[in-house]
Amino acid sequence: MKLGVIGAGAWGTALAQVAARGDSPVTLWARESEVVDAINARHENSIFLPGVALSPTIRATDRLSDLDDLDALLVVVPTQHIGAVLGETKVAGRPLILCAKGIEAGSKRLVSEVAADAHPDSPLAVLSGPTFAHEVAAGLPTAVTLACADEALARRLSDRIASATFRPYASNDVVGAEIGGAVKNVLAIACGVVEGAGLSLNARASLIARGFAEMTRFGMARGARQETLAGLAGLGDLVLTCSSTSSRNFSLGVGLGQGIAAEALLSDRKTVAEGAATAPVLREAARDAGVEMPIAQAVCDLLGGAPLDAVMDALLQRPLRPEGV
Ligand SMILES: NC(=O)C1=CN([C@@H]2O[C@H](COP(=O)(O)OP(=O)(O)OC[C@H]3O[C@@H](n4cnc5c(N)ncnc54)[C@H](O)[C@@H]3O)[C@@H](O)[C@H]2O)C=CC1
Ligand SMILES: O=C(CO)COP(=O)(O)O
């Protein structure tokens, strides 16, 4: 199965490295010509994944038409740009493996809904889980959820990308895998705030647990299965990104917790913190679904410039309630 990767940020580049194991050829589409040049000339993505020696069988291109002859495409563009990029891509019914973690602002569409609207004939899979790109690119042990309604296709895709250190676990819960990845980014911002404001470890553990309750309430209202949300793409990724400054979302939260304005933290950045764009649209989608998400609401408030003390008070003064989801 010949694979192409759309998007040569850190994660697209790491996934190209996964797909190139065993010297398989992989075509990687990058938006930036300097990324194309660096990968083809020096086998390094010095802008988005510096310091990783890439397989020489990865060929970068800035022409989407170079993907026309491949068997399946991994889509690794940030969520807010997927509609535009897929609109320019000739897909012709080929499988799309969706790897971004977010919800589209304005339309409130999950990435699978954006892809289905652009390419209704293509089978869709979602690859999600606890996966810092630099660790995956370095070949460190990693497990992911690979969700696809077509179980035979999930098996073929898993066989193609699996290795001794990269383990896809198959699922047919596409929505669950997507919601886990999208919501955890927002919750990672909240955990970063706890770190930045020096609120310490009890508070962070409580946010992870209560954030997971929010993720579960929202996911189940949207048709996700609880076991998916409790798996790699939900709880697994939540724990990863809520524990490390390697997470861009967590780091954004650290800055907010230190009192730096969101605008200053987000301006001029080359890399993406998906939770910042997802938080407001998640709040709207939760309202539509009749689901309470106070932590997601708090993240929206902080991103909107509300003072940390007021946001913390609003969370801590909520009425006491039973613990169940
Ligand atoms: N970096 C990681 O460890 C992981 C990232 N992801 C997800 O993968 C997706 C891509 O993130 P990264 O590869 O980390 O990105 P990145 O932050 O490394 O790079 C930014 C990417 O955005 C692209 N971009 C910027 N403006 C664009 C535009 N107007 N149109 C199209 N593309 C544009 C750049 O070309 C580049 O590929 C996100 O949804 C992220 O949540 C998922 C798992 C791990
Ligand atoms: O999704 C990720 C790890 O699974 C990467 O998280 P960040 O986008 O917060 O860096």
UniProtKB/TrEMBL annotation:
Subcellular locations according to the entry: Cytoplasm
Annotated GO MF terms: glycerol-3-phosphate dehydrogenase (NAD+) activity; glycerol-3-phosphate dehydrogenase (NADP+) activity; NAD binding
The protein's annotated pathway: Membrane lipid metabolism; glycerophospholipid metabolism
Binding site for NADPH: W11, R31, K101, A133, R248, V272, E274
Family, similarity comment: Belongs to the NAD-dependent glycerol-3-phosphate dehydrogenase family.
PANTHER family associated with the record: GLYCEROL-3-PHOSPHATE DEHYDROGENASE (PTHR11728), GLYCEROL-3-PHOSPHATE DEHYDROGENASE [NAD(+)] 2, CHLOROPLASTIC (PTHR11728:SF1)
The name this protein goes by in its record: Glycerol-3-phosphate dehydrogenase [NAD(P)+]
Gene that this sequence comes from: gpsA
